[in-house]
User: Which sequence fits this backbone?
């Protein structure tokens, strides 16, 4: 008879305990976020720079932290993005998105009357994280245009704290699925934004004017079935690169990371191409020349750079090419892969120092066979050049088993990172980098800034490449180095002449 009364009393006791916990929790909540007068957050930054992005594209997301160093909790009752450029910025604070305002202000009113959460609360000695993104609007200006706004936090005590938001919008001319089927010219004071492909049809010639920049998305490529004439100058080079202009990490722009776009291909029907003062970098590959009639000149590349690619930087398949006064560097594959053909290299710096893999290829690999078939190497000539890299042997010849397949190579007046070759009339007047050398490989050049991924292939004072070049060849071909400096009174190997002021 007493058991039911006992159960009911126990239930009342549990209910009373739960009510006490609720009341206590309410009191604790009130005490946790009193936001006393004058109390503020400590902001991790006072300015958030969202870098430069192409118009109609978004920046990488940046973060800032609001630290509550107080013992008491703080409440934020309003978050707003203010200023004339506010509509170009987006923010999310502690998981809460800020909604656009038609008056060019974006804000979040933390107001229970609007059915939104009552506040953004931060306990004492805790923190909140804000995420910010910049969406660049069109400017119709040739240069990058600055956008500014303020991310403002209004606290329950009336205090207002703000962070300056800065972004730069670079207007660009979009090219989507662009095919040049007749002769045409790219010349503009704004970059070209290649969304997917740029193709020059067989029989057509595309001329790119000095100073033009092509910026390509990761899936975008350039294919030349006809002819490409890209005549830059030292002051106004032609640039082919990825489209990201912002940083992946601090001091590490996307532009110094490989695999940001596909690459440049000269197909089997393409001849008479010329690249002068071109800077081609950060692709999946650099330049590919497909098999063609080697009696016709396929590519002349001078005073140019092919740098920092995921695969091979320069692939030459059964082609006639002339490469001079150029830098070919930092491929995860080979810097140069040659399969037969007729190829001349004069005053080139070929350097394999890619930082992105320990399994990188070599500075130079050449073959007189391809996919099990003979691919005659009629001529492969290196004169007054540097071929080096991290490995102790950076040059590999892979000949055909058939001794009748031509394998004609010549190396004269070069600095070579490979074991010395003696008693070979085709290999003369070279210097060889040995394992024991104190100045070799990366030691030939100005110090690399590895954390920032900056590579300078100008010669250091102790490089063995100094005075190594044949001056008669220099005078007849490239009396000035890639930077326009005279090769006198002596001539150095590679595309850069040593200067005392360096």
Assistant:
């Amino acid at each position: 008879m007493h058991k039911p009364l006992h159960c009911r009393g126990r239930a009342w006791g549990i209910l009373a305990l739960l009510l006490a916990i609720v009341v206590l929790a309410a009191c604790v909540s009130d005490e946790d976020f009193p936001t006393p007068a004058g109390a503020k957050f400590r902001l991790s930054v006072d300015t958030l720079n969202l870098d430069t992005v192409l118009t109609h594209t978004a920046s990488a997301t940046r973060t800032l932290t609001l630290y509550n160093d107080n013992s008491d909790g703080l409440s934020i009752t309003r978050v707003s993005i203010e200023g004339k450029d506010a509509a170009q910025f987006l923010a999310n604070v502690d998981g809460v998105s800020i909604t656009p305002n038609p008056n060019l202000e974006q804000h979040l009113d933390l107001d229970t009357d609007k059915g939104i959460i009552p506040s953004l609360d931060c306990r004492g000695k805790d923190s909140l994280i804000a995420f910010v993104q910049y969406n660049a609007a069109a400017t119709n200006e040739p240069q990058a245009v600055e956008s500014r706004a303020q991310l403002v936090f209004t606290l329950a005590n009336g205090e207002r704290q703000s962070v300056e938001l800065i972004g730069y919008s670079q207007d660009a001319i979009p090219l989507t699925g662009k095919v040049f089927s007749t002769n045409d010219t790219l010349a503009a004071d704004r970059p070209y934004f290649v969304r997917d492909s740029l193709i020059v049809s067989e029989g057509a010639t595309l001329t790119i004017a000095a100073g033009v920049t092509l910026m390509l998305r990761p899936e975008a490529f350039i294919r030349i079935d006809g002819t490409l004439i890209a005549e830059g100058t030292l002051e106004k080079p032609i640039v082919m690169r990825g489209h990201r202009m912002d940083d992946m990490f601090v001091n590490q722009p996307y532009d110094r990371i490989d695999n940001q776009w596909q690459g440049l291909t000269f197909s089997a029907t393409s001849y008479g191409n010329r690249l002068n003062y071109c800077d081609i970098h950060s692709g999946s590959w650099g330049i590919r020349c497909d098999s063609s009639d080697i009696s016709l000149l396929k590519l002349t590349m001078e005073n140019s750079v092919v740098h920092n690619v995921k695969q091979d930087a320069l692939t030459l398949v059964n082609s006639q090419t002339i490469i001079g006064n150029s830098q070919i560097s930092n491929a995860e594959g080979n810097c140069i892969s040659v399969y037969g053909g007729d190829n001349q290299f004069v005053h080139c710096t070929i350097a394999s120092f890619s930082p992105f893999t320990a399994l990188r290829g070599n500075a130079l690999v050449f073959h007189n066979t391809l996919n099990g078939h003979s691919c005659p190497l009629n001529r492969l000539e290196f004169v007054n050049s540097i071929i080096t890299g991290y490995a102790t042997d950076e040059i590999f010849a892979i000949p055909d088993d058939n001794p009748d397949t031509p394998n004609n190579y010549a190396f004269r007046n070069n600095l070579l990172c490979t074991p010395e070759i003696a008693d070979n009339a085709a290999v003369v007047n070279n210097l060889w980098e040995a394992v024991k050398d104190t100045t070799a490989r990366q030691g030939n050049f100005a110090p690399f800034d590895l954390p920032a991924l900056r590579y300078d292939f100008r010669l250091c004072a102790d490089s063995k490449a100094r005075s190594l070049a044949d001056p008669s060849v220099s005078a007849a071909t490239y009396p000035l180095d890639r930077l326009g400096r005279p090769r006198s009174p002596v001539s150095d190997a590679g595309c850069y002449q040593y200067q005392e002021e360096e």
